[in-house]
Structure to design on (721 residues):
């Protein structure tokens, strides 16, 4: 059919060109197939098998999924912990980094240095971050020490108390991730269309009204991007609780990814781990789709 | 012509990808040929250097084979081993620890008397019970290069400063409490409470005289004697207040770190750390004694690490020979005389004590002798690592008084004892 619309000569050229192109992209394609498609497909298959590390693999249908939902004592708490973390972390992180970007947007002295300072936790290895936070938060640490010498008040054992431990994981994560979102918002704020801002000024918009009616809507694509990415990373949270609280006390801060890790690499139940990973994937996809659906109502794109 | 080019390009790129991949595969070592890969954990450059020296000994004994050493830190080693087992890439000669074996038996070949003969291993030359270390339910999966048990370590300076009685061979749990109480001040605790499986269970097992698992591998966490002893252990923090509560479930080496950093006067840890504690960084005078004795004596576990052969190893005979030379007299003498660990081979054991500074030698020898005189192989269930993973973060709640030890053990028993 396409041959009818093109001259044969062009068709031959295009064909040979696309063949050559295929030759050039084939290393990348092979890599993609080997390291992305195969593992993804394999993990779907694994989810339907009782798949020990070594030995007989048996097909069990939906048993792994049923087991997770009805029989696994840690699955629901892990899911709950992940949601609690995301619900606390995403709004706090987005709002605080936006406020930070706004306050560093005005031409204050040393804002470049301040931006670097706020960005440092993002590039510092998490191990170092966690070490510092642990030293602050443990009962013999700085926070409790200061509180006792200044006010004579004994603070709770933050990382060992079920409620406080989650708060501290969220707090550390917010501190750690602040700089990244701030950078996104800063870039958006730098690119506000002068004409719109000027027109608003002439119309008498200032202060809060200016921010709420002009700046926020104009930067809404960035806010959308940041909140989606932050939400996804929050659902996949692992390192912070793993290293700061070890998922404890009990399973009070164990997120779903740590649950998956334990099932797969500590207990060698790869089938169960794969099934849990696909449940997480489904949740993330559904939440991202919902956010994309809702964006029509509040995200304004400049055309 | 062009088609030829494309085909060549495709083949070349495919070959590139495939060789990249299969290079990883051959590295993993169970491939045939004369190469034998030895996979072992090593946490530091010292560890790696010591392993290299042992591999060099094995290489000299087997000039026709090419022996390659692969290492990973302790924690990563077992994660990597899981993946290697799953992908059929387990190294022919792989390191294993008594506490971890039950989760990995599927990857290791059972060693018969014939296998041991091929390796040149004469079991009588090893210490009593040494072959139990890497056995599971009566089957031998590996031969240990070292053996270990748990000891009480103390900070002699702290005890002298507070006038606390010094732990000695034959001491009881009453003596232990007296020392811990006397050594507790505002500046430091009398005892560093344990988080690791071996560390926290050592005193309850010694006090109760029973293990939390029966010999046949059934879980027995709710054995009344063990529950009582474990409850007593938790109350060292909550009731007797001779130990500080753990600050986070990720502090898996809490008690030992408290001790080695001079925050606690005593801690329980394995014989493998004896040398490390003797020349500790803060520079205090360290001492050691066996675990205290309860009404039922002072039961300890014999632990250790060694090497086993991968089940899917293509060249089992060569692998056995390498295993044999890694445990030869020369290699064991090397481990012992470098003071790295207490060898499983009887003739090499005295060299370990000789490697220690003269002022510690008698004390260490006495403590080891007494501690190893009352040991039992560790009984584990097939899902032991799950139980350990479950209990550890719960201990934080126990030590902080939010949960009772009895409840934790009951929950674990009902969850994993089926």
């Amino acid at each position: 059919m396409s041959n009818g619309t093109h001259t044969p000569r062009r068709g031959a050229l295009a064909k040979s060109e696309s063949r050559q192109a295929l030759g050039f992209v084939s290393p990348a394609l092979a890599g993609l197939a080997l390291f992305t498609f195969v593992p993804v497909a394999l993990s779907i298959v694994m989810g339907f098998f009782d798949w020990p590390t070594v030995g007989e693999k048996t097909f069990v249908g939906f048993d792994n999924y049923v087991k997770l939902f009805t029989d696994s004592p840690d699955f629901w708490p892990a899911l709950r912990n992940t949601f609690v973390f995301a619900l606390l972390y995403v709004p706090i992180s987005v709002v605080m980094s936006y406020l930070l970007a706004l306050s560093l947007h005005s031409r204050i002295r040393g804002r470049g240095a301040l931006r670097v300072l706020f960005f440092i936790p993002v590039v510092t290895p998490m191990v170092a971050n966690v070490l510092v936070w642990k030293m602050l938060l443990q009962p013999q640490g700085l926070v409790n020490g200061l509180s006792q010498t200044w006010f004579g008040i004994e603070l709770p054992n933050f990382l060992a108390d079920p409620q406080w431990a989650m708060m501290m994981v969220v707090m550390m994560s917010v501190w750690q991730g602040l700089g990244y979102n701030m950078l996104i918002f800063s870039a958006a704020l730098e690119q506000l269309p002068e004409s719109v801002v000027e027109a608003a000024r002439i119309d008498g918009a200032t202060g809060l009204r200016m921010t709420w009616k002009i700046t926020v809507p104009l930067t809404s694509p960035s806010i959308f991007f940041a909140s989606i990415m932050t939400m996804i990373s929050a659902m996949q949270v692992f390192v912070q609780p793993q290293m700061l609280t070890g998922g404890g006390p009990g399973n009070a801060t164990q997120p779903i990814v740590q649950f998956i890790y334990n099932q797969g690499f500590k207990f060698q139940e790869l089938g169960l781990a794969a099934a849990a990973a696909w449940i997480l994937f489904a949740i993330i996809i559904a939440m991202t789709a919902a956010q994309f659906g809702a964006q029509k109502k509040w995200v304004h794109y400049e055309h | 012509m062009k088609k030829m080019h494309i085909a060549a390009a495709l083949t070349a790129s495919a070959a590139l990808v495939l060789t990249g991949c299969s290079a990883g595969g051959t590295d993993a070592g169970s491939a045939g040929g004369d190469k034998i890969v030895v996979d072992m954990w090593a946490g530091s450059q010292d560890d790696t250097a010591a392993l290299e020296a042992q591999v060099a000994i094995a290489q000299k004994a087997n000039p026709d084979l090419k022996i390659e050493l692969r290492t990973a830190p302790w924690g990563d080693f077992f994660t990597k081993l899981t993946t290697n087992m799953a992908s059929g890439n387990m190294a022919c000669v792989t390191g294993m620890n008594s506490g971890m074996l039950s989760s990995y038996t599927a990857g290791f070949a059972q060693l018969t008397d014939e296998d041991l003969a091929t390796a040149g291993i004469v079991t009588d030359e090893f210490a009593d019970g040494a072959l139990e270390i890497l056995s599971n339910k009566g089957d031998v999966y590996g031969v240990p290069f070292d053996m270990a048990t748990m000891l009480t370590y103390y900070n002699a300076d702290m005890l002298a400063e507070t006038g606390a009685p010094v732990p000695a061979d034959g001491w009881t749990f009453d003596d232990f409490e007296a020392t811990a109480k006397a050594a507790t001040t505002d500046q430091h605790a009398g005892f560093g409470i344990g988080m690791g499986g071996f560390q926290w269970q050592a005193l309850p097992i010694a006090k109760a005289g029973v293990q939390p698992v029966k010999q046949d591998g059934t879980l027995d966490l709710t054995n009344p004697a063990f529950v009582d002893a474990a409850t007593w252990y938790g109350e060292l923090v909550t009731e007797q207040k001779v130990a500080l509560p753990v600050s986070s479930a990720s502090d898996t080496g809490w008690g030992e770190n408290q001790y080695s950093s001079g925050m606690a006067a005593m801690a329980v840890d394995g014989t493998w750390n004896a040398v490390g504690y003797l020349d500790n960084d803060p520079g205090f005078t360290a001492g050691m004694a066996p675990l205290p004795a309860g009404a039922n004596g002072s039961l300890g576990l014999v632990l250790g690490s060694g090497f086993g052969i991968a089940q899917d190893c293509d060249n089992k005979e060569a692998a056995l020979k390498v295993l044999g030379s890694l445990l030869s007299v020369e290699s064991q003498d090397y481990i012992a005389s470098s003071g790295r660990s207490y060898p499983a081979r009887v003739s090499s054991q005295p060299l370990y004590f000789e490697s220690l500074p003269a002022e510690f030698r008698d004390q260490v020898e006495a403590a080891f002798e007494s501690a190893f005189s009352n040991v039992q192989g560790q009984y584990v269930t097939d899902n032991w690592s799950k139980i350990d993973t479950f209990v550890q973060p719960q201990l934080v709640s126990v030590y902080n008084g939010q949960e009772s030890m009895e409840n934790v053990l009951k929950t674990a028993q009902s969850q994993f004892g089926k």
About this structure: The mean pLDDT of chain A is 89. Chain A has 14 helices and two strands. Chain A touches chain B through 47 residues (CB under 8 Å).
